[in-house]
What we know:
76% of the residues lie in helices and 0% in strands. The protein is an all-alpha fold.
Amino acid sequence: MQSRKPIAKAFKQEVKTIRRDGGYIPINEVDDDVVTIMAKALALKTIERKSQQLELTNKVIEEQKTMVTLSEKIS
């Protein structure tokens, strides 16, 4: 049994979209104002900087791993 009301058809279409895409993200043109664009750029820049720091830290850890294992064997 299905409803023939227009709102039911619209709801059914939204459910299909959620099932197909895994989520529903409404598109709002107001969100792309200057402040939002600047915030997104700042967030991307921060993420990139943190990613570089993490990569450098992992490299240092790998380099020091052999020294740590050697010192553990000695003591």
